[in-house]
Structure prediction request, 72 residues.
Amino acid sequence: MEINQPIAPGMRYRDLQVTVFGQPQWEWIVEDVYMAAGIEHARLVSAANPAERKTLSVAILRDRRRFERVQG
Prediction:
């Protein structure tokens, strides 16, 4: 993914960190992108469990060591 490509609602990302049991994390869907305190943020919802949500800076979501974009 291009580093400057905009992140938009509906895009999917896979968390590359493994769990305690060595399993990969689930996929996250971008629900919203917004600016707060001069930092761009992405609000994410779990594809496996819609009750699970988190907010990250867009810089973290673009970090290829932490997340990869899921095509489709």
User: Anything to note?
Assistant: The chain is about 5% helix and 45% strand. The CA atoms of residues 17 and 66 lie 6 Å apart. The helical segments are 58-62. The chain has a mean pLDDT of 88.
